[in-house]
Amino acid sequence: MEEFVACFAEVVDPRQDNARHDLHELLLIALCTMLTGGKDCSDMALFGELKAPFLRQFLRLRHGIPSHDTFRAHPGISESGIMRSACFWISVA
Q1: Among candidate residues 7, 3, 5, 81, the one with its CA nearest the CA of residue 44
Q2: Could you tell me how many helices (H) and strands (E) the chain has, helices first?
Q3: Selection from 91, 85, 87 nearest residue 5 by Cα
Q4: Which of 3, 46, 50, 60 has its CA 20 to 30 A from that of 66?
Q5: Of 20, 37, 34, 28, nearest to 55 (Cα)?
Q6: Among 33, 9, 13, which residue's Cα sits nearest to residue 21?
């Protein structure tokens, strides 16, 4: 997870300090969703719900699985943003 966080360090979190969900957890769920054919924020929330037992093996998810509104509220979570960062992450892994 440390390598993932390092590669996505350039993604700015515009949310307030009281954001409930960890940015890197959002990004990882978003990336996994897109790699498995998901297309939008609703798919990200659904992926999180369906894969919650798996995700909890390595993510804290202190406030549960983020909703589609949570994914939508972050401008860095778009297909282009995630894929650009993912390509960088894969190239250095």
Answers
A1: 81
A2: 6, 0
A3: 85
A4: 3
A5: 28
A6: 13
Q: Tell me: pLDDT of 80 over 60.
A: no
Q: Which two tokens stand for residue 48?
A: 């999180």
What pTM, to 2 d.p., does this model score? 0.82
Q: Which of 38, 29, 37 is nearest to 71 (CA)?
A: 29
CA pair distance 23, 90, nearest whole angstrom: 19
pLDDT tens, position by position, 23-32: 899 989 998 9
In this prediction, residues 53-63 reach a mean pLDDT of 96
- Would you say residue 53 has pLDDT above 80? yes
Find the angle CA(41)-CA(46)-CA(47) to the nearest 5 degrees: 95
